[in-house]
Every structure is written in structure tokens, then in C-alpha cells.
Design a protein that fits this description.
6 strands; 60s Ribosomal Protein L30, Chain: A; 2-methylcitrate dehydratase PrpD; 8% strand; alpha+beta; 4-stranded mixed sheet; 2 domains; 53% helix
Length: 443
């Protein structure tokens, strides 16, 4: 049996699975976190521009955009998928170097609204999408990440699987949805090596492509069953001829959605361990930012490749700059959305701190990536002392997880400024009790 068939059978059979409460709760946490990313991203570019570009698909259809505007299903998936990746606060599955929520949940909600299903089915679709896509992303691995943006590639499978589940495709058609999704998968790292709006579009197009692949399979369109492991397939083309079968061994018994990272900072996840480590030192040793003479950050090499920009000139570039976000944390105490206001980029004190930051690859920490995301941070003060801390993981990773209360605080911080406290509270209550909702048309 091909890998695509094993995944297709898992997805189609999941309708008869009684999901335990722990897995359901983790899935709801993922949906709450996705909504917390969606709303601030909806009012940021490129989302308003996407509404203009896709105007003919709006104000009709059964799906909904973030603030309630009706849309066709694929367009809702695309726009919400882009919006929920725009503010850089969406979830991470670290072993796949992948943000599953933005493409997967955006596609799932759009199809759920189209089909008129209830909250429990939406949750189960999200679980299926996460399981299929995180496993494919994990197989593709670090080699894939050198050139490809995993959220655009693996995310296409998450969207296709969630959509196929909600369309109630049988095992054969579910499999073909995944096979077609494989040849739709795309997203280049180069697209966000400089200031551009391309990165969130990867997530949006993944959501749209996944829904399209499932719709096509529903009508009988077929794909190549060996498209993942074949000689000219996804693994060979986009990775290093990886081994596929081992990641399938615990499919259905272990759920990756229980091991998500929920972001505690509003920037690239590769910057988190340096931020956390710098804040630990500053608070532990009571170091004022004015007393810092030099900052050395040693971490894994992909962090420097993706987020090593020493002189960011725009908010988008600043989100991918360890010097900027570490300096911001030391200067202001946090790295939230306010950190990327245009005036911050002109802050002379911040620029001076950035000039003191030195980045290095730490061989041992590099070898631990992607399973562990650590950083060794040293603050040198003007009196000649060195203050060091090894940040072994990131606040928000599964081994240092955000509590439900902390996740709700994140939701409030990001959603209330856009929707207001009353509406935000009402939506949060629906999301935390989603399995009891008979329909999700109002989300």
C-alpha cells in the first residue's frame, strides 16, 4: 500500500473514531490560537489587498471571512489562510518546521461552513489535517526547509485532508485528494528573504489548493498514488529521498496536535529561544539595557539563515531579525505586535543595541534542530562581566507550554483591539465549547 493510501484510509476512517478528551482539548487550543492569529492579520496587508483581488468571489457563497463577509469556499480558505499567517503569531509543529493552523484550519472552516456541519466535525477535520500534514512535513525534514517554505508545501496536505474529511470522501477519493495536493504544493524560502507580502500567501494558497484538490477528488479526478515516495515524487524532488514508512507506524495512536508550539512572541519562531534567554538573564541578574556592552547569541544555523537580518528596514524584515527582536526584548520587555510599529525601527536606542548583537552557530544546538530549538545567550555588561544562560527550549513549546489561561490572554491581547471585548469574549466562549455547537456558520 502506498503512503498516500495509508493516509487516505486513516482520514476516511476517522469519522468512526471516538476521539478522547485530551486530543479534543488540544485541537480546540489550536483553533483558539488560530483565531487569535486570524483577527489581527485580517486588518494587516496583504489581506485588504486580497479582498480587492478576489472581489468577484466575495459577498456570495456560504463561507465567511474573519469579520463575517460572505465568500466562496476556496476564496475564504485563501484569504483567511493568508490573514492567519500575516501577524506571525500562528502555531508551529517544530519537528516539521511548519505552521499547520493557518492553512489547515482556514480550509477546514471554509468547507465546514459550506457543508453546514457542527463543531465536533470541524474539530475532527482539524485533527485529521494536522496528523496528515505534520507527518509529511516531518518526513521532508530539514533538507526540504533549505529551499521550501513548509507551511506552503506541507500545509497543502493539511488543507486537503481536512477538506476531504468534511466532504466525507471514501478512502479512494481521499487518497486522490492527497495525491493531487502533492503536485500543488509550493512556497519558496527566497520569497521572504527580503521585504515582501509573499510569505502569508503561501499559507493562503495552500489552504485554497487543498480545498481544490478535495473538490476535484470528490468529482472523480485522480492523482498518482506513488507521488510521495516515487522516483520522481515529492520526497525525491523536495528533500533527500527520505524514509516514509517509519512516520506512519504510530498513525492513529499518537496525535501530533497534542505537541504544538503556540507563539509567545509576534515574530519568527526561530527568534524565540534568543528572546527568552535574553529576558531570563536580564531579569535574573537585574541588568538595565543601558548597561549592556555586547550580546552574543549562539543557536542553530537555520535560525541565522532565516532570521539573521542585521539591519531590518521594514516591519516585515524586523520579524525575521534576531538582532532586532532581542534588542526589542531587552529595551521594552516584550516582543508583541507593538514591537513592529514603524517608529520602533527609527528608535536610536534600539539601533544602538542591535549593533551590539553578534550571531553564531552553536554546533551542538545545531545538531539538535529541529527537534529542539535552543539558544545560548551571553550579555556582556559595561563593567566587564559576562552573564550567560542556555535557553533549552522556547516558551510555548510543548515542554514549556502556554496554559489555557495564557492562551486566552494571548487571544484577548490580539482579538480585543479589533473586535472589542464583548464580541471577543463571545467568540472565545464558542471556541472553547466548539464540540457543542450544532453549526459553525457564525465563526
Amino acid at each position: 500500500m502506498y503512503i498516500s493510501e495509508q493516509l487516505g484510509r486513516f482520514g476516511s476512517n476517522f469519522h468512526s473514531v471516538n476521539v478522547n478528551e485530551e486530543v479534543l482539548h488540544h485541537a480546540k487550543r489550536a483553533i483558539v490560537d488560530w483565531y487569535a492569529a486570524l483577527i489581527p492579520g485580517y486588518v494587516m496587508e496583504p489581506t485588504p489587498l486580497l479582498e480587492k483581488a478576489y472581489a468577484e468571489d466575495l459577498d456570495r457563497g456560504r463561507a465567511r471571512l474573519a469579520l463575517g463577509r460572505s465568500a466562496t469556499t476556496r476564496t475564504a480558505a485563501l484569504i483567511n489562510g493568508s490573514a492567519s499567517h500575516t501577524a506571525e503569531v500562528d502555531d508551529i509543529f517544530k519537528e516539521a518546521i511548519y505552521h499547520p493552523g493557518a492553512p489547515t484550519i482556514s480550509a477546514a472552516l471554509a468547507v465546514a461552513q459550506q457543508e453546514g456541519v457542527g463543531g465536533l466535525e470541524l474539530i475532527k477535520a482539524v485533527i485529521v489535517g494536522y496528523e496528515v500534514s505534520t507527518r509529511i512535513g516531518k518526513v521532508l525534514g530539514r533538507t526540504h526547509y533549505k529551499f521550501w517554505h513548509n507551511t506552503g508545501t506541507a500545509g497543502t496536505f493539511g488543507a486537503a485532508a481536512a477538506a476531504a474529511y468534511l466532504l466525507k470522501l471514501d478512502a479512494t477519493r481521499f487518497t486522490h485528494a492527497l495525491c493531487t495536493a502533492a503536485t500543488f504544493a509550493a512556497g519558496l524560502q527566497q520569497a521572504f528573504k527580503m521585504d515582501s507580502m509573499s510569505k502569508p500567501l503561501h499559507s493562503g494558497r495552500a489552504a485554497e489548493a487543498g480545498v481544490a484538490a478535495a473538490d476535484m477528488a470528490r468529482q472523480g479526478i485522480t492523482g498518482s498514488l506513488d507521488v510521495l515516495e516515487g522516483v520522481y515524487g515529492l520526497g525525491a524532488a523536495m528533500s533527500n529521498d527520505p524514509e516514509w514508512q517509519p512516520v506512519m507506524d504510530d498513525l492513529g495512536s499518537k496525535f501530533n496536535i497534542t505537541a504544538m508550539t503556540f507563539k509567545n512572541h509576534a515574530c519568527c519562531g526561530h527568534t524565540f529561544a534568543p528572546i527568552d534567554g535574553a529576558l531570563v538573564i536580564q531579569q535574573r541578574d537585574q541588568i538595565a539595557w543601558q548597561d549592556i556592552a555586547r550580546v552574543v547569541v549562539e543557536t542553530y544555523s537555520p535560525a541565522l539563515a532565516v532570521a539573521g537580518n542585521p539591519v531590518p528596514r521594514t516591519p516585515a524584515e524586523a520579524r525575521f531579525s534576531i538582532p532586532f527582536v532581542v534588542s526589542t526584548a531587552l529595551r521594552y520587555g516584550s516582543v508583541r505586535l507593538a514591537a513592529f510599529a514603524p517608529e520602533r525601527l527609527q528608535d536610536s536606542d534600539l539601533q544602538a543595541l542591535m549593533g551590539m548583537v553578534e550571531l553564531k552557530v552553536h554546533p551542538e544546538l545545531d545538531a539538535q534542530f529541529p527537534g529542539q530549538r535552543a539558544a545560548l545567550v551571553t550579555l556582556f555588561t559595561k563593567d566587564g562581566q559576562a552573564h550567560t544562560f542556555l535557553q533549552p527550549t522556547r516558551k510555548g513549546d510543548p515542554d514549556m507550554a502556554l496554559t489555557d489561561a495564557e492562551l486566552q490572554d494571548k487571544f484577548d491581547e490580539l482579538v480585543v483591539p479589533v473586535l472589542g471585548a464583548q464580541q471577543a469574549q463571545a467568540i472565545a466562549q464558542v471556541l472553547w465549547n466548539l464540540q457543542a455547537q450544532s453549526a459553525v456558520s457564525s465563526l
